[in-house]
Amino acid sequence: MTLPLRHSTTMTEFDILIVGAGFAGSVCARQLADAGKRVMVIDRRDHIGGNAHDKVDEHGVLIHPYGPHIFHTNSKKVFEYLSRFTHWRFYEHRVLAQVGAQLLPIPINRTTINQLYGLSLNGDEVRAYLDGVRQPRDPIRTSEDVVLNSVGPDLCEKFFRGYTKKQWGLDLSELSAGVAARIPTRDNDDDRYFSDSFQFMPAEGYTRMFERMLDHPGITVRTGCDFRDVRAQFGGAHLIYTGPIDAFFDHCYGPLPYRSLRFDHTHLGDVAQFQPVGTVNYPNDHDYTRITEFKHLTGEPHTGTSIVREYPQAEGDPYYPIPRPENEALYKRYEALAEQQRGVSFVGRLAQYRYYNMDQIVAAALTAAQDLLEVRA
């Protein structure tokens, strides 16, 4: 799916230049265009939607080229805003982790513990079991502190340490507490990966949602366009930048650490279902961290199925800011430079060096657009 480009004869007619057509850039664009601003959105890739972009593969299956994007939020405001541009398919994501020969629910719940250890504990007994194995940590500074304080060393080794090493290239003890704190531990049989109030997938896909969001007479979209090639052409336009903040400043303080990914997409033409849930994690086996089967996410009927294996790596496009105190300190230096910039707003995961979920990016973009409108009123 491709959004037609609205051509413009001059660049000076635009009030706003937005770098990046993902969630941050697209939400800002729509909000500002609805307020009467003339907006140009550029993206160096040949498509809109950023990493949430989806497309139909050559076998007719809707896939996520940049890995699975599962929408979930507790924000009614964010959900209602996106509902302007899409209908939804109810979907609760479930994840299993391969531990030995077993596939076990993650986040860890009562089923996980009972099946792993051959027990039949009820909820109270699960809480007592975890109290008996956990290693209290005070203060909690690292992700290792979080996991050991919650589930103890054996579950840590079986589910978390190896996965973290592959995902981040670091040990749990080297990551800030917030990374592991994103994953709860449950004493019941709730096997949903998320517990948010709103858990849905765009019924026609993310790209169609972005197309509708950017379909406005005040918005011009140009893909395959590098910011550095056109920056000087937009003179008086306010800039909203959603790319890596360190790149904006030519890495003058050195590069901020990001984690990248390599994706191995495979289609299985004679397999109706490859795995029992949307994603299976591999914390201790293989070089990849997980396999996702897209038909679970989209609900599409197809005689075959398409899957993706994810291989985290140090080099490549930036996907995840790496949460460590020293990285945050380096970011603060770039943030100080950003605050000195006149006519520039930095919005999004890479521009704000935050491990944001999609709904958090939408919320940040709504706030940024409103702030800009108030300043330029």
From TrEMBL:
- Taxonomy, superkingdom: Bacteria
Cofactors: FAD
Q: Which UniProt keywords apply?
A: FAD, Flavoprotein, Isomerase
InterPro entries for this protein: UDP-GALP_mutase (IPR004379), UDP-GalPyranose_mutase_C (IPR015899)
The molecular function terms of the Gene Ontology recorded here are:
UDP-galactopyranose mutase activity
This enzyme's EC code(s): 5.4.99.9
Q: Where is the UDP-galactopyranose mutase C-terminal domain?
A: 158-355
Q: Does the keyword Transport apply?
A: no
Similarity comment text for this entry = Belongs to the UDP-galactopyranose/dTDP-fucopyranose mutase family.
The name of this protein is: UDP-galactopyranose mutase
Organism in which the protein naturally occurs: Pelomonas dachongensis
